[in-house]
Amino acid sequence: MALISEYEEEESGTKPSSSAASSPPAQPSTFTATFDPSNPLGIVEKLFDFLAAESDYLSKDAAEKEIAAVVKAAKEKRKRKEEAAEREKAAAAAKAAESNKRLKEEEKEKKKKPEKEEEKGARASTVPNKGNGLDMDNYSWTQTLQEVTVLVPVPHGTKSRFVVCDIKKNHLKIGLKGQPPILEGELYKPIKVDDCYWSIGMVSTEDQNTISVLLTKHDQMEWWKSLVKGGPEIDTQKVEPENSKLADLDPETRQTVEKMMFDQRQKQMGRPTSDEIQKQDILKKFMAEHPEMDFSRAKIN
């Protein structure tokens, strides 16, 4: 690699003689040399030869001290540059380590979040009442797989003409005219509006009537967790349908309900569901029919 620089000779600190004053000013000289990485001092020696030939700088008493100061300054500059590079490298490494640590913590939190949500849901769920629903302060509801019944106590002597009962596919509103609704909200699941109705009648106590609302579920194969969305939820794994009701179902529906009940009990005990048992049986049969295959490292989901 070639290094080319220009050097303008100056005689600082000396006064020109009378003869030199009449001489024309010194012209800049060009120094050209080739740098050999295997012999770094070679270019330095050529530079000093150039200085000796083109000027009397090396004859100055302070030349050696000034050259040593230049060398020292160059070494310090190189050291500062290396230290800055090391600091930048260390800072980059620390930043990368911090970023990796943060990513690991985020991944850890992501894994914990579903567990926390599940635990939160379990804590928020309530054991259902005897009708597989929930008893609230101003109303109660029960359910079967096909229907939901809502009971709303109202003052004794309340007539049907004073009742507000608005039943829609996804919304329910129950109350008395001229008063805030006793119950209003979006239903947990859609219903068949044409198969729903309400009535008002006496209850066992003499000072109350009760508004009774029957809602026919659109999906008659699912237990509702709550009456309205955002309301208190029940633990559907603890729902206990009446056995007498199962006898009234058609064979296909009864088989589906019994399967749901079996799977709920299995999940509560931490055991495989009917579908998982069926898959295991199929796998065992396949393994028995193919003994030549190695399943020791197989991962079956």
Automatic annotation (TrEMBL):
Keyword terms, alphabetized: Cytoplasm
CDD domains, per the entry: p23_NUDC_like
Annotated Gene Ontology cellular component terms: cytoplasm
Record field: compositional bias (Acidic residues): 1-11
Compositionally biased intervals (Low complexity): 14-34
Principal cellular location given in the protein's record: cytoplasm
GO-annotated biological processes: protein folding; response to stress
Domain CS: 134-228
InterPro entries tied to this protein: CS_dom, HSP20-like_chaperone, NudC_fam
Region annotated Disordered, chain positions: 1-39, 73-135
Function: Small heat shock protein required for the establishment of auxin gradients and for patterning of the apical domain of the embryo. Involved in the specification of the cotyledon primordia. Also required for normal inflorescence and floral meristem function, normal developmental patterning and thermotolerance. Acts as a molecular chaperone.
The protein, known as: CS domain-containing protein
